[in-house]
Amino acid sequence: MHSERTAGDEGEDSVIKAMIARGKSIARQQIGPRIAARRPRRVDLPLKHWGLSVGPNGHLHSGAVDLVELAQREGTPLHVASAVRLDANATAALGPLRAGRGADIFYSYKTNPVPTSLERLHRNGIGAEVISPYELWLAFALGVPPDRIIYNGPAKSKASLREAIERRILLINANSVRDAQSIAAVAAEVGTVANLGLRVSLRQTWGGQFGITSSSPVLIDTIRAALEDPHVELRGLHVHRGSTVRTMRTWDGYIDEILECCDTIRAATGWSPSILDVGGSLACPTVDKFDTVAFRLNRAYGSDLLPPDPAACLTIAEASARVAERVHDHFTAAHVPVPTVVQEPGRSLTGDTQLLLTTVLDVKLDGRLPHAVLDAGINVAEAARNEYHQLFSASAPTSPPVRSYRLAGPICTPADVLYNNWRLPELEPGHVLAIMDSGAYFVPFSTTFSFPPAPVVLQDGDEIHRARDRLRFEDLVAADHFTGHTPGA
């Protein structure tokens, strides 16, 4: 049985739709602006956090390096990595371990795979955490000792497994049952024993294609099979939270679940890891995901996005000391050998060691909100769309922020907007801006969408060294096969 709609029903629907539309209009025109007006104004993070200052000529300086002159000389967009900050961050991260009570540190290559920066970290004692055949190749090319390499990831090639096993790297973490079987099979072909770890997916960690679910009986079956296989030595348990950690409370909750998993495994199999790899996920102190409401108010009404508090963010050293202490106490109380604890920080180790210089190409004043078109967009700075990245005027860092701009990139898509509403001094073509904390996921997420990716320089003291050259147009098509044509020929 079905009923027919009457003209009266349709009339009621029209009234309801009109009321909803009216409500949305009131919210958009009256309520939204009032809420936005009550939002606090942004106070920029201090320049000294990144070792920056205002030079005698009024430009933004990094040490003695005038960043505007550097941008003009090298061209933009341009990443500027700091050797001083790389050294300092690595030293601080390894501090608890060197003091005798901390986790070992292996840098997540996927975060910022710039060989010059990686070399700097390795020189300071940081290991390599890789997730692909390319990254494994890069670690060996950089001369990283096998016992300072951990191989993760869901897509390990047979050839890369063979090399990792033959060279006896510290740990190969299997991502699945089949991955564990493949590692054992390659080790059997090679005629040696592979150092095996198992990645486990806990309640508050990434699941899906990552790791074996901790609550699944498959995990226990896989551990038992590995213990019986003569071609693998089951050494490690690997977990990775995924969502960033900013507080000790969150970190402690994560450790609780890891230790609970270790207890469950030991009760079922008698096995306990000799290496406990707790992954990365620690936040960069000066970067944070946008609050949804704040982001929408900023985009629609121009209220400020507010920076995170760096002092309130958990550091690698604090996390390292805490997890090592808790693992030591937990395993000691259980009368079980205490495993070596490993962390795999990425963004927290290099995020604030690099900045991106970009130049204003055009300023459009013919709309409600001025648009400044930059030579850096989602092709080189996609991460800036989704998280707070402090932005400074390099050309006029002390000038008052008198106007809000929408900062758009050079790509022909409306999606190419890095900052929807950001207050800055008056901008003109040629003005140089500095996007901070480009040392995490800017470089690996860069594309060749209509433009070459940004090159990288390394600042070591007052000296600038080329770390990655700007690609020529010819470089972009070097792997392609086509019939060339010389214009005018």
Task: Write a structural description.
- This protein has 14 helices and 21 strands.
- The chain has 2 domains: 47-80 and 352-473, Lyase, Ornithine Decarboxylase, Chain A, domain 1 (Beta Barrel), CATH 2.40.37.10; 83-350, Alanine racemase (TIM Barrel), CATH 3.20.20.10.
- Strands 4, 14, 15, 16, 17, 18, 19, 20 and 21 form a 9-stranded mixed beta sheet that branches. The chain has an 8-stranded parallel β-barrel with strand order 5-6-7-8-9-11-12-13, surrounded by 7 helices.
- By secondary structure, the protein is of the alpha/beta class.
- Helix 1 packs across helix 10 (292-301) and helix 6 (158-166) packs across helix 7 (177-190).
- It has helices at 7-37, 67-74, 83-98, 115-123, 133-141, 158-166, 177-190, 217-228, 248-269, 292-301, 316-333, 347-350, 378-381, 473-476; strands at residues 52-54, 60-62, 65-66, 78-82, 104-108, 127-130, 149-151, 171-174, 194-201, 212-213, 232-238, 275-277, 340-343, 354-364, 371-374, 391-393, 403-408, 417-424, 432-436, 456-460, 463-468.
- The termini are far apart.
Looking at CATH, which topology of the largest domain would you report? TIM Barrel
Number of strands: 21
CATH superfamily of the largest domain: Alanine racemase
Proportion of beta-strand residues: 15-25%
Oligomer: single chain
Provide the helix percentage: 25-40%
- The geometry reads as globular
User: What is the makeup of the main sheet?
Assistant: 9 strands, mixed
